[in-house]
Every structure is written in C-alpha cells, then in structure tokens.
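Researcher: Let's try something more involved. This one mixes different molecule types, so please make sure each is placed in the same coordinate frame as the others.
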Amino acid sequence: MAKELAKTYDPSGIEDRLYQKWLDKKYFHAEVDESKKPFTIVIPPPNITGQLHMGHALDETMQDILIRFKRMQGYNALWQPGTDHASIATEVKIIEKMKEEGITKEDLGREGFLERAWAWKKEYGGRIVNQLKKLGSSCDWDRERFTMDEGCNKAVNEVFVKMYEKGYIYKGSRIINWCPVCNTSISDAEVEYQEQAGHFWHIKYPILNDDGSESGEYLIFATTRPETMLGDTAVAVHPEDERYKHLIGKNLMLPLMNRKIPVVADEYVDREFGTGVVKITPGHDPNDFEVGKRHDLPIINIMNDNATINANGGKYEGMDRYAAREAIVKELDAMGLLVKIEDHVHNVGTHDRCKTTVEPLVKAQWFVKMDELIKPAQKAVKEGEIRLVPESLQKTYFNWTDNIRDWCISRQLWWGHRIPAYYCADCGETVVAKEAPTKCPKCGGTHFNQDPDTLDTWFSSALWPFSTLGWPEQTKELKYFYPTDVLVTGYDIIFFWVIRMIFSGYEQMGERPFHTVLFHGLVRDDKGRKMSKSLGNGIDPLEIIRQYGADALRLTLVTGNAPGNDMRFYYEKVEANRNFANKIWNASRFIMMNMEDTQPTKPEVADLKPADRWIISRVNRLIKDVTENMEKYELGVAVQKIYDFIWDEFCDWYIEMVKPRLYAKDDTTSRNAALYTLKTVLIDALKLLHPYMPFVTEEIFCTLQEEEESIMVSSWPVYDEARDFAKEEAEIETIKEAIRGIRNARTGMNVPPSKKAQVFVVSDSEEKRAIFTGNSDFFKTLAYASDVIVQADKTGIADDAVSVVIAHVNIYMPLGDLVDLEKELERLKKEEQRLEGELKRVNGMLSNEKFVSKAPEAKIAEEKAKLEKYTKMMEQVKAQIANLSK
RNA sequence: GGGAUCAUAGCUCAGCUGGGAUGAGCGUCCGCUUGACGUGCGGGAGGUCACAGGUUCGAGCCCUGUUGGUCCCACCA
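Model: All components are placed in one shared frame. Result:
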C-alpha cells in the first residue's frame, strides 16, 4: 500500500518530526573521510545571551542552503556550530539581572560572579541552539563548541603567548576609548559616532611675557569640550601661520589651574578652521595625544574611570564631566575669558553597546600590533585568494586594512578569557605564559598576580575557524576540514570579525581560513527600519515558523535578495511562500493519487510524448541553471527559477497537458510515460528545492519514493545532454503561445459560456486539418492545452501532437486571428535590425586582428558559433518578412 | 571630507560579464465550484528602467555630470 500525504499541508505536523529523524540518523554528522572532498562552514557563533532574531534566521538559512547543496553534491559537508561567550554583552546582562536582586559585581567578587556567569551560560546558551534547530539547520551538533570552552581557551592562550613572544602583542600606555558606564576600555571598532547638537565655546587664554607677567594679550580658540582644559598642557598653532608666528615658544597662563603652558607649532593645526588655534589636551584627545608625543608634552589625566573629575582637576574634583563643563564655562565667563558660544553640530563617539559617550583616556592596556599582521590579509583579498561576495565590499575592507591601527584587546571585565600575563609580586616582572609561572625568572620570587583584565571577545572569535577544529592540537579534523570553505555573515561585522579571522588564519595556520566570504544585509521591517527592541518592531522568527512553517520563512529570507543587500520583511511574502509549499504539496498529492498502487516503469524513449520531452528538457535546463547560480552564491536567483519552474511550467502547464492521458486509462503506455515523467521531474525539482525548503521536500520525497530514506542524502541532479530536447521545447512554446492566443481571443469575444465555439486548426499542408469543438469556457482553461495535443494526436493531424505547427495556425470565425500581422511584421523588422547589428558586431570582432590573435580560443569559437546562429536566424527572419509582406 | 550603494509596474524588490522590459511577490480590475490545490485557475490594466549628455550597430546594464535617498569610514579642536 502506497504511503499518502496528509490532505492538507500543515508544516507544524511535519517539521519537528523530520528534524528528529535527521538527528537520529546522524545525517548532519561529518567524520573525516579521505575518500571524499570536504566542504566546511563554521557558524558565526551566536551570543549566548541571544534570542533568535531575523538576522540569525537569514544567516543560518543561507549557510544551511549551501551545506545541504554541497552535501547532496557528494561533498563531506561539515557545518561546525557553536556559541560565543560575548564578553561585554553577557556581562552587562548579568549585571542588569543582579541589579534587580540588589546585588553588584563587587558584592559577589570575581569568583562568585563567574559562577553566576557560567550558570547563565548553562541556562541560556542552549536556548539559542534549540531555536536554530527550529529553522532546520543541519549543523553537526556532536561538534558543538563554545568560545570559552577548554579547547578555545587553550587556543587563546597559545596565540597570546606566541604573539607576545613575537612582539605582536604588547602592553603600553596609549590613548584608548573608555566607556565610563561599562567601566572598560573598548576598541576603535566598538566606537559608534553619533551626530549631536553641541556648542562651540570660544575661550581665550592670557599670553605671558618672558618674565611670567601677563602681557595683556590673549589667544582665542574654540572648543566643544571646555572641561578638558583642566588637562591642557599646550596650545598649538600652525608653524607657518603669520598671525601667531611670533608667539611660538611663548607661554600662556592656563586659567583656573594657573599652570604655565607653552605655545607650540604643529602642522596638525588647520589655519583655516576657527581661529587657527587649538588647545592641546594629550590626556583626553587622540589627536592631541599625538601632538603631545611630538612636542614631549606632559599628559595629565583629569578623569576618574566613572568620568568624574579627579584630583588633577583641582577644585572640580568629584564633579561629573558635564557638571564640570557647566561650572567651568560659568567661571570663565565670570573671569571675562569666555568670548562667545556658538551652536555646533558634531559627531560624538559613543559605545556601541550602551551608547554612552566614550571618554578618550590614557591607560596602560594590551594591544595587538597590526602593521605586519595585516599584510597577508590585504594581499589575500587583493590577489583573489579570498573572495568577497559581493565584490564591492572590497573597498570597505581595504579602507579598514589600509588605515589599520593597533587593536586594544584588554577589557576591564570579568567574563572572558583572562589575559595570561603574570606579575611578580616581589619585583614586578611580567611573565606571559600559558600556565601560571612558579618562579620569577628575574628575582626568583614565587608569588605572582595574574593580570586582572580579560580579552576583547573578538580575540577568541578571530580564532574560531581553527580553534573549533581542535587547534592547537594537530587533530585529524584540523588537517582535513581546514581551511574552511565559505564564511556567511552580515556586512556589519566585517571589521570586528571577518578581517580579524583572516589575519589570524594566516598568522597562526599559515593559510587562509576560507576562500569565500558571502555577505548578507540586514533584515528590516516593512517600513525599512532596523528591527530593534526600543522600537518594538522586531518580528520573532519562531512565531513566523509557528504560523507558516520554517520552509516558508527560509524561502522568504532568500528570495529576491542579492548578496550584501538589506531586505524588508513582509508577512505577505511569507504567506506567498507558504502557499508555494502548499502548491507543491497538492501537486504531489495529485501525482500520487494517479499512481495509486503502481509505480510507473521507465518508458521507452519513443513512448515519451513531446510534452514529456519538453518538461524533461526544461527540468534539465533548470538543473544546469540552478547549479550554476548556486555555485556563484546567487541563492535568490536560483530559487526564483525553481519556484517559477514548479509553479508555472510544471503545475500550470505540464500537469494540465497530461491530465487527459492520465484519465484515459486504456492507453497504458501513454499513461505510464506521463506518470513516469511526472514522478521523475517532480523528484528532480524537489531535490533542487531541498536546500531551501528542507521539510516539505523531505516529506514528499519520502512518501513518493518509498525505497529511499531521505532526500537530504540523495544525490544532486546533474545536467544530462541526452535529456536536452530543443525541438520539443520550441514546439511546446509555440503551442503555449497559440493557447494563450486562443484565450485572449476568447476573452475579447466575450462569448456566453453556454455556446459552443469551434476552433479550426490548420497546419501548413491542407490535408492535415482538424476541427476542435468544445464549450467556450473550456477553451479558457488550461485543460484545453492538453486537449489540443491529444486531439491532434488522435486525428492524425501530425505524427506527434506537438508537430502541429501553431505558428501557421489560423483560428477562424468568431475567434479572429491568432496573430496580429502588423504587430508581427513590426516585431520581425525589429528583429532584423537587431540581427543586423549583432552580425556587424560579430563580424567586426572576428575580422579584428587583435581580437583574433589575443582572445582565448573558447571566446573565438563562441563568437563564430554566434555568427553562424545569427546568419541562420537572419535568413529565417528575412523569409518570414517576405512571407508576411505578401 | 573620503568611499560605497541605490533610483525599474501602485508598494517591495529581481534582472548574471551591454543584445527584444523575460520580470516576481503583494495590491488592483475582469472572468472561472475545470475530477491536486480558492493557500486555487485563466485573463487584463499599470513601466520615457531618476534626469542630462556620451560610447556602441545596440544601454536598465559601460563612461561623465546632475538631483534625491541609504550606509560605511574619517572626525576640524
């Protein structure tokens, strides 16, 4: 007894069941197997704090499509999953939760806090993984990793020590971005600039005579941050500036602080901007820091970690930076040193996590020296060893690599990889080592304090492609699956992650981590806005899955979307795609109903009708196109073609054409050929669709194909020249055109449904004439198409149905002309013109010596073939024009 | 300031290296209980492919400029 599909398509009834089956059968699991070629993707590890959002859904869907595609193509496909500890994001969340309980980090202490953090990881780390499963992700869950698991931790220490020894990691006092709310340093990449309305305070400092007395003259300048004046150690002018040349080397009196500060000359100053005078605060401005280095100026830090003024700020000590600003302006005004206040819009650096205005501070931090490290990463993309899709992102990539600055990697956080640096309690010697040292190499002391800082969360992510495969151990997995193949991720983390993985891959492994980076954009709401918590416009993928099924969601996310482009999310789209799943479901049910208990047998080639050959040829072409598109990562284009084929060609045309043959049970040969074709073509189409819609395709496949256990381990269809039937394709196209013509004519005529209409079909030879009659509504239906063919066959109008040359068909009487002669003539003339141009071009190319001598042979052959093709077409067109003109 | 990218049907978007706008989904209008599907079937309306030049036999696609939008980087205090 044949299995049956449920009468209605209900994704919730099949998805969980099938996923469990795949897990049980271990289809996702990949083992090293030297006889097969590997194909590897490492997942961008979602944060353990995260809930599945549309961005994940898109990211995972694209990866799953590629992995399933390659797996079916026979590759040993590994999708390496895992999660990210997301140091700062997680720590902030845990602290928030603790706040509700009235506890602070300090109450718990480092140990206690970490205990809580691990408990958090245990509770929420699994949540996102379960959500990924709902999407149908075929990750090898047996290999799941975590950025802070033992292996990854080992990899981090290994890299840190190695790079420290090579001089690529160093500790130094440099100006860094400080977040006073999160209480940690952050890297340049984490600073987000926001346009804010502010002010320009024009202030003047008194100029001193050489003997230290006030000269009565002033130097005027403008600042957006008056409070930083507390830390001013100079004022700068341009060396060539005639207005101020005489003042260079003189001193000024820094008001409020009563500190003598020099006037220095530096090219950094823009003479055109403002008054051409800049106050220099090396301790709180990155540019000033550089100026300060050049002129050997003292660095005064005037702020505490929480952005209040410290003891260096004199009487302002203890005030918040903004309160101090107000007080200082007020006082300067009282002293007559405030010239004026202007409104000014400027960009303010904020912390991307908490949006707090960052404070540039000079602090001792750990850095990765980038200048040498970045070189292989630049070269790799430049020379095409690593391909970015879309290519336009190369510019963004190079913009970053060409202006790379050292990477601040230390964070004043507790949740993360602790820096493996130890300081001797006796002599202060720094020891960087994988294991805690026991004896100080300098003084022999045995007491050490480990550096309290942790590493930037991206430090461990940078090692992800090889740490997950076992590095630093030389595992068989590492040797086999590395380098990985494709990295799929959003363009928003190109700096944070992609570039860092690339240079880390070259540095640690001596090899690229992957050959292609496939970028996607953001999923926005239907108004084009980013989905965000504060707007409350986020759409929960799990809710969509509950309503429409994972298949519909997946299709929605990849259809009509080019790499690297943002997309908008519409419920209508999901609905349309759910309808598509329903369509396939019903078409499959129809085919199975007709098969009843008997599986069709392979027909003789001669028994295949033109319509059969046509659809076989079409699916064959589809296989070729889709495979090519997918290999070029054009996932949206590929699936659009599958969609069109299944709905339009297969369901709306082929199934309708074939119906009369299915109902005519006496002609078993024809019926078998039709059923066989239906089944095989459907299977090919299902296979092509499987990477996109894994669940429906699996359910149908398993019901239809009783002997095979799963579509996901079946083989990807291959284009076969023997299944290419150009003649039938052209003929059916003609028939289709004719049928459309009939429908149009009918619509125009508005014949009452009850009346019978007649269609006269005449081929080019007089004796092959037939008359078809039917209910006029009948002509409007697609069933008519099949009837034309079947009738034509039966009446012997032609040897096979499709050779009814409808281009020569005339439809008489109430239906009017099928072809508008004038329009046709116009079309042909246009075609003639086009061909003329085309011929000219090809001829021109082929007679061009440079082209013939330099172009690759394949290209020349192609052009020659075109020449031949166009010549023939030209003849035909000319003949047709002559014919019609009569 | 530098760069990227977009401007195609009422809306949202595809359109590969230049070769008949081949378009899709939704919406809209007309018609259909046709023995898989109304989550369906058939048909229609709707486009000077932002604007202006240029290259070409031929441009939505290439070049130049203009306008408008989005994003990234830098940050002139």
